[in-house]
Amino acid sequence: MKRELRETADGSKTLFIEELDEHYHSIHGALAESRHVFIEAGLKFIDKDEIHILEIGFGTGLNLLTTLEANETLKKRIFYTGVEAYPVLTEEVNKLSYENLDIPELVQSLIPEIHDALWEKNHAITTLLSLKKEEKKFQEIRNQNEFDLIYFDAFAPSAQPELWTEDVFKNMFKALKPSGALVTYCAKGQVKRNMKAVGFEIERLPGPPGKREMTRAIKA
Q: CB of 54 within 8 A of CB of 149?
């Protein structure tokens, strides 16, 4: 699928897929959305010193960058697994101009290492964060009781409804440890009903810029 570079409201850039009429991140601010949904409502919600994170939709790596940024202060031991069926190309990442983002210089310096990291291998990105990128479809995830937190950052249900079904959320539920959480920008009624159907307890939270609500789902 052809991807085009687009600028978002906070000056950060994202990619646009014309075929799906879908952006990788919010046009109201890619960086702001990542910090609000996945860091404030996700990473900071998990009260553990060691956290296992599964990202559904590794994409441009932005959510990993904001995780690294937040962990400069949090100092947690993080094991990060990013799943992506259609990896972004290095030349596409280079066009995103991450150097213009308001993130620490140390985090910016890690961008080449993140995107050059071999898939299906564990990499020590920092002394506190280990990364494993997995190239596969979300429906193929079969982990059991392994993760404390899931960043569910798939394309919107309007573009790819097959990624927001009961079957997918059943796999997410199984992948989480008890009391684990899934956070997503999406707050559509059918999506929340699908989550509830597989056992999640749903929390409606204020959304990032441009969205009234987001969702946090807990494996009770």
A: yes
- Cα 217 from Cα 192, distance rounded (Å): 9
Its pTM stands at 0.89
**Segment 184-204, tens digit of pLDDT:** 999 999 999 999 999 999 999
The amino acid at residue 171 is N
CATH pick for 30-219 out of 1.10.287.70, 3.40.50.150, 3.40.50.2020, 3.60.150.10: 3.40.50.150
- Residues paired with 204 in a beta bridge: 215
Distances (CA, A) of 74 to 3, 31, 49: 34, 19, 9
Which residues pair with residue 54 across a beta bridge? 81, 150
DSSP 70: H
**Phi, psi (rounded to 5 degrees) for 170:** -65, -40
DSSP 165-217: SHHHHHHHHHHEEEEEEEEES---HHHHHHHHHTTEEEEEEE-STT-SEEEEE
205 or 22, which is more confident: 205
- The DSSP secondary structure of 95-151, one letter per residue, reads TT-GGGSSS-HHHHHTHHHHHHSPTTSEEESSSSEEEEEE-S-GGG----S-EEEEE
Residue listed under structure tokens 């994202």: 14
Listed range (14-18, 91-95, 193-197) with the worst mean pLDDT: 91-95
